[in-house]
């Protein structure tokens, strides 16, 4: 049963929103990484790993919380799915960061910044949605916008891959594809969060 307006927001909702904020901070760090000199990048990686660790801790705290309370704002399987999908997003964000760090001389195309912007927009929407899971109208708008952003990300991904068609060294194209794939995987994980939100709308309407 969803907690309605006027009732105290449950801790589970707060924890989900906190996980989403950590993931959003991770994407912001990746954007910062692209414009940082090599000697500053290792510090940014440590920050990124710290965010990942906090997201995992929040996930564990959430699992402990829903086992210890009698009533939850959503079915426990939905809460678990949302938290797991958010942590999967973080895993792919960290993977993209590691791949970028491993190739300090690789020049990324403009599509990389476009993809990060789309992912950041997704996470802005996710933070808002996780904070207001009781608002079915907001969830419906969230679901619609996430579908549109994912389609946009798919187009950007294709443009990124085809931009390397004329690369003289095949390994350069492969390196670009690995980073592009990691970011697209994060985008797809965010769509999975929206799909779970969509199932809540259908069930609660």
Describe this structure in words.
This is Nuclease PIN. InterPro entries: PhoU-like_sf, UPF0111_domain. With 205 residues, the protein is an all-alpha fold. It has a single domain, classed as Methane Monooxygenase Hydroxylase, Chain G, domain 1 (Up-down Bundle), CATH 1.20.58. Helix content is 81%, strand content 0%. It has six helices and no strands. The protein has helices at 11-34, 38-68, 76-102, 110-131, 136-162, 170-204. The protein is globular and about 60 Å long. The relative contact order is 0.15. Mean pLDDT is 88; it is low at 1-8.
For the record, the CATH class is Mainly Alpha
Structurally, the number of domains stands at 1
The residue-averaged pLDDT reads: 88
Main sheet: strands, sense, barrel: none
From the coordinates shown, what is the CATH architecture? Up-down Bundle
Pick out the low-confidence regions: 1-8
Structural class computed from helices and strand pairing: mainly alpha
- Count of helices? 6
Q: What is the H-and-E element order? A: HHHHHH
The CATH homologous superfamily is termed Phosphate transport system protein phou homolog 2, domain 2
InterPro entries: PhoU-like_sf, UPF0111_domain
Protein name: Nuclease PIN
């Amino acid at each position: 049963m969803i907690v309605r307006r006027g009732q105290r927001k449950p801790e589970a909702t707060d924890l989900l929103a906190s996980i989403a904020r950590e993931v959003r901070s991770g994407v912001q760090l990746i954007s910062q990484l692209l414009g940082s000199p090599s000697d500053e990048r290792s510090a940014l990686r440590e920050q990124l790993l710290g965010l990942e660790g906090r997201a995992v801790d929040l996930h564990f705290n959430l699992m402990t919380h829903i086992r210890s309370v009698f009533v939850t704002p959503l079915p426990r399987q939905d809460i678990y799915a949302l938290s797991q999908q958010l942590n999967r997003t973080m895993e792919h964000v960290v993977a993209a960061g590691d791949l970028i760090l491993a190739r300090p001389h690789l020049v990324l195309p403009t599509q990389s910044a476009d993809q990060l912007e789309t992912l950041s927009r997704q996470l802005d929407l996710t933070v808002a949605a996780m904070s207001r899971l009781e608002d079915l109208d907001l969830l419906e708008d969230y679901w619609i916008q996430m579908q549109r952003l994912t389609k946009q990300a798919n187009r950007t991904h294709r443009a990124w891959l085809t931009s390397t068609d004329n690369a003289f060294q095949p390994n350069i194209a492969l390196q670009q594809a690995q980073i592009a794939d990691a970011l697209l995987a994060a985008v797809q994980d965010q769509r999975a969060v929206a799909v779970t939100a969509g199932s809540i709308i259908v069930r609660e309407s």
